[in-house]
Amino acid sequence: AMVFHGALGLSLLFGGADATGPLADTWIWDGTLWHAEGPGGPPSRSRHAMVYDTLRGRALLFGGKAASLLADTWEYGTLLEGSFATTGPGCTGSHGKSPVLWHRGRP
User: HSE of 42 in the Cβ direction (CA atoms, 13 Å)?
Assistant: First the structure.
């Protein structure tokens, strides 16, 4: 999944899959070049979703599928904070289809 991180002015790409299975890499697009982010963060997954929280200036990642369905939530703050940090469980039953929507009026 990919999201534009408004506070950083960068696009953030995480995970996906290739012929060997789900991926756990994070890439940042600065408008000119792709940069690989260091290790750490969510486990490998595909079929996950990302959204940008405009109130807190953070990208949120939810759910997806690896060997099993995932229902966890992670956030990416600033480049100084490093990579993703877990924010705990999400809701159950993502079924590997994890659409998300950020509603500015609801914290």
Answer: 35
